[in-house]
């Protein structure tokens, strides 16, 4: 069913951000969302909460994802790499040839500050000039999303009308869909959000 659902959509996001603004994140419910993303064919997934709980407890999240992936999908896909934004862990854990990053606020504005500092050092060392700084240069200097395209879609969960620091540089053209909560979320709610994204017309600022 998941593969058929993914193929049935007029367009499928390449990179989905899952942003939790609620105070009590659920590992089981977030794992379900990640596995559903993989199942319908989404290539890149970012998980974010503004307190950094998922990132600090990424092993617990990975265990829950692996458990649900085996229960729901079986082992019929080739394994894929799990990469953490702080680059301290990598491992072959999940499948369906998708990549996952677990992010926290330090991967947002703090990463932009670090990129600016690195660029200033390059200028000071005369390896770059100030006129070299453009969008592509800054993209290359940002470590939190290295190898990931900008998110096409952010699913924001919770009552707060903000993404609370999730990748502020990368969501200029991102479609953001708000859902009441990630707690006890159903596959139907998730797929309805994907269907909404597929039907929206993106004008790219025009």
From TrEMBL:
The keyword Nucleus does not apply. It catalyses: n isopentenyl diphosphate + (2E,6E)-farnesyl diphosphate = a di-trans,poly-cis-polyprenyl diphosphate + n diphosphate. Pathway: Protein modification; protein glycosylation; Lipid metabolism. Its EC number is 2.5.1.87. Its main location: endoplasmic reticulum. Transmembrane segments: none annotated. One of its GO terms (biological process) is angiogenesis. The active dehydrodolichyl diphosphate synthase complex is a heterotetramer composed of a dimer of heterodimer of DHDDS and NUS1. Interacts with NPC2. With DHDDS, forms the dehydrodolichyl diphosphate synthase (DDS) complex, an essential component of the dolichol monophosphate (Dol-P) biosynthetic machinery. Both subunits contribute to enzymatic activity, i.e. condensation of multiple copies of isopentenyl pyrophosphate (IPP) to farnesyl pyrophosphate (FPP) to produce dehydrodolichyl diphosphate (Dedol-PP), a precursor of dolichol phosphate which is utilized as a sugar carrier in protein glycosylation in the endoplasmic reticulum (ER). Synthesizes long-chain polyprenols, mostly of C95 and C100 chain length. This is Dehydrodolichyl diphosphate synthase complex subunit NUS1. It comes from Urocynchramus pylzowi.
């Amino acid at each position: 069913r998941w593969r058929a659902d993914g193929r049935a959509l007029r367009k499928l996001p390449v990179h989905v951000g899952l942003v939790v603004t609620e105070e009590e994140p659920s590992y089981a419910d977030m794992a379900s969302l990640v596995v559903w993303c993989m199942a319908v064919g989404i290539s890149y997934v970012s998980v974010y909460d503004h307190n950094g709980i998922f990132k600090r407890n990424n092993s617990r999240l990975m265990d829950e994802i692996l458990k649900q992936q085996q229960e729901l999908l079986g082992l019929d896909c080739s394994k894929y790499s799990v990469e953490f934004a702080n680059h301290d862990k990598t491992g072959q854990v999940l499948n369906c040839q998708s990549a996952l990053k677990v992010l926290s606020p330090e991967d947002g504005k703090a990463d932009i500050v670090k990129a600016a500092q690195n660029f200033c050092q390059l200028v000071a060392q005369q390896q770059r000039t100030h006129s070299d700084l453009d969008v592509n240069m800054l993209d290359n200097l940002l470590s939190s999303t290295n190898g990931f395209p900008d998110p096409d879609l952010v699913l924001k969960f919770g009552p707060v009308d903000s993404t609370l620091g999730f990748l502020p540089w990368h969501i200029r053209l991102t479609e953001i869909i708000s859902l009441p909560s990630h707690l006890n979320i159903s596959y139907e709610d998730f797929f309805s959000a994907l269907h909404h994204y597929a039907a929206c017309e993106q004008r790219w600022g025009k």
